[in-house]
Amino acid sequence: MIHVTAYSNKDGLQKNLTLEQLSSLDWNWYWVDFESPTDEEVKLLDSYFHFHPLAIEDCLHELQRPKLDYYDDHTFFVLHSVNREELEREEIDIFLGECAIVTFHKEPAPSLDIAERLLKRSKDMSKVDEYFILYQILDKVVDNYFPIVYEIEDHINEIESNTKNLSMERLLDELFDRRSELLTLRQTVHPMRDLLYRVLNTHHLEGVRDRSEYFADIHDHLIKVADIIASNREMTQDIRDSYLSLNSHQTNRTMQILTVISVIFMPLTFIVGVYGMNFQHMPELDTQYGYLVVWIIMIGVSIGMFTWFKRKGWFD
Fold it and tell me: The dihedral of CA 33, 39, 40, 44: what is its sign?
């Protein structure tokens, strides 16, 4: 599906235009959005817009790294947005030319919808151009990272406090899921941060220099998101180490208790084994109080060893 929006001083802001109407009139700027395009619509990138074949090839390949390429009559951007529900990266490609911006994406892009709504509400259309639209798209893509990061941070805090009294195995499973999500975000945010750095320091895009403070603000947001991600990954590592240490401590305590029980029963097993051999000539078997004496000895040994272990601090 192709959405065409254009603006001219004479006709104002026009939406839902066709490519034929776009060619027939003189527009100040226009925005063409390819959303989940068909094969026939994809061919228009070459036959109608005459974009560079390498840029078109990058559009068709899945998940190119965020980047910036310069061609003779247009600049090509690759952005990564994040699907908030499934937490998967989605690619948005942008062709920026003189008085024109063309966006290409295979999945619905809420960031572009928000940018379009802001464009419609703009009071001073004389200040709107292709670079203004580029800024709005970049800004909304980056702003969408924050609620995702904050939601993951809330989950990490819940894991740390364990308000639901989950088992340690369940907590560790959830913790590793959060670390995997943070890794996905880091693989998205860091290349986007590098892309914005290139955009800010380029000499090819005059419109960016005119709005450098706005694009610098997006770059600052990406640095902030990257810092939050790094902080949360460190927190998950600390929580993981704490849980593993606690699990190791509990295992050691269990082994300690089993060791005490085994050591106490060793002499008892020896005594019972000796008098359970059933030899005929064992003087103690004929003693009147032999059974009682053996019980007293075994109980005394057990109490003595238990007291010794307690004084050593094994039950503290």
Answer: positive
Q: Phi/psi at 124 (nearest 5 deg)?
A: -115, 90
Cα→Cα distances 202→173, 209, 306, Å: 44, 8, 77
Q: What is the 3-state secondary structure (H, E, C) of 284-303?
A: HHHCCCHHHHHHHHHHHHHH
What pTM was estimated for this model as a whole? 0.76
Query: CA–CA separation, 155 vs 47, rounded Å?
Result: 49
Between CA 146 and CA 133 the distance in angstroms is: 21
SS3 content of the chain, % helix, strand, coil (to 5): 60, 15, 25
For residues 227 and 221, what is the distance between their CA atoms, to the nearest angstrom?
A: 10
Tokens representing 260 are 């005490």
Burial of 211-245, coded b for 16+ CB within 10 Å and e otherwise, reads beeebeebbebbeebbebbeebbebbeebbeebee
H-type alpha helices, 93-129: 110-121
Buried b (16+ CB within 10 A) or exposed e, 92-116: bbbbbbeebbbbbbbeebebbebbb
Query: Which single residue is written with the structure tokens 């790294």?
Result: 65
Strand partners, 12: 8
Q: Which amino acid is at 102?
A: V
SS3 30: strand
Q: Map residue 94 onto helix, strand or coil.
A: strand
Q: What is the pLDDT of residues 180-205, one digit of tens each?
A: 889 889 989 999 999 999 888 888 88
pLDDT one-digit tens code per residue, 91-120: 899 999 888 899 998 888 888 888 888 777
